[in-house]
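Researcher: Structure for this, please.
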Amino acid sequence: IFITKAEFLEFTQADGSKCKTLVVRIPYRSLVPFQKSSKEVIEQLEKKFDWPAVVVAVRTIQSKAAITHPSQMRPRSRTLTAVHQATLEDIVYPATITGKNTRVQADGKKVVKILIDPLDKEFVEDKAEAMAAAYEKLTTHKIHIGFSKPTSFQLKKINEKK
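Model: Predicted structure, token format:
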């Protein structure tokens, strides 16, 4: 597993205190092998630096206006929307995204709320603000991370863990 870049990101939490997070960027080709051992690596990084760690693959965004041969089309995976969606999935990786809610306020601002599987709550709950700050730094889009309402099956799983 290779690391392309690692940086500390400072952000302000909801209570007004300053906090940091470690954003690690890895090559796209290393993403699948990394995800096999991601929990252990992230735990070690968080233990060493005492800050939440977020790992993201480096992806390429290809412009619509890029000069290519007329027979070539831009792959869907290189569009701005696809890269931002994949970046979001990388940031919340051990957890799964169950829903996405976009709300446009009266003044024109968009508020995107990401809903995560309630079974992953214990892993993501303390890092939600750090994940949102990392996503905003990488894509300039503000998001709020929350948890979806558990189904009856998920409630049974949650009660078994307790």
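Researcher: Any notable elements?
Model: The longest strand covers residues 18-27. The chain has a mean pLDDT of 87.
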